[in-house]
Design goal:
3-stranded antiparallel sheet, 3 strands, elongated
Length: about 240
């Protein structure tokens, strides 16, 4: 069981990091200010107009850091990726500190998971793994608080919706709708909750493994006393 623990736990850690990085991390939905406009938005979504947007950590980091830090890429007018990144940074400026803080704590969460996997594989110290998992959950809760503050600003209209939608949609109808719609929903998505759930899974898995190691399941064998075989000579003597 100890060997199985030292193999499976690092695999869970690596799987959590991959899911947290590539699965969708944020979810946004566009809704109308009134019920009538909400109905129009629903019809527009049925016609193929994008009204829901999701971003993974990989996509978000790519948008934030595509621009060359030296400024040479931004100065090059022919570099479309640099212009797109600079425009995105300008649009999200009100929540940029929150996004950076979220990324920092989320990256720490990922690094802690990798460290947890190394500790489990190298030493198999289960108490240390549990403590590291609890620390990861604390980092997750900090990410939830930071994202809540950013989402409140987004839903509150501090970010120009028209410019933001224009970054991800070429639909003329959607750009027209942005004048009468707002962000109706902004939440953390599957990628984040996959990481959160994997920390809980590692804790439960470690507790179960610890119980099995300390009190191994043993099959009780009942030993029945065999009846002595009587010799034929003893029978004939009677």
């Amino acid at each position: 069981m100890k060997i199985a623990y030292r193999i499976i736990t690092p695999l869970l850690a690596v799987g959590a990091v991959v899911m947290g990085f590539f699965l969708k991390l944020f979810y946004f939905a566009i809704g109308g200010i009134t019920d009538e406009i909400s109905s129009i938005v629903t019809i527009a979504s049925q016609l193929g107009v994008a009204t829901k947007y999701e971003f993974s950590a990989f996509e978000l980091i790519k948008l934030l850091f595509t621009t060359d830090l030296s400024g040479s890429a931004a100065a090059d007018a022919t570099t479309e990726a640099a212009q797109e990144s600079a425009g995105f940074l300008t649009i999200i400026e009100p929540v940029l500190p929150h996004i950076i803080a979220f990324i920092v704590f989320f990256v720490l969460t990922m690094l802690l998971f990798l460290a947890l996997g190394v500790v489990a594989a190298a030493t198999g110290k289960r108490k240390t793994v549990i403590l590291m998992s609890v620390g990861g959950l604390v980092l997750c809760f900090i990410c939830i608080i930071i994202s809540k503050l950013a989402f409140d600003k987004l839903i509150g209209g501090e970010i120009p919706l028209n410019d933001l939608v224009g970054m991800f949609s070429d639909s003329t109808w959607m750009k027209l709708l942005t004048t009468v719609v707002t962000v109706s929903s902004a939440t953390l998505s599957a990628g984040f909750y996959a990481v959160f759930g994997m920390y809980l899974l590692v804790i439960f898995w470690t507790i179960l493994t610890n119980m099995l190691i300390n009190t191994p399941i043993e099959v009780k064998r009942k030993h029945r006393r065999k009846k002595p075989i009587k010799r034929l000579s003893a029978v004939f003597r009677r």
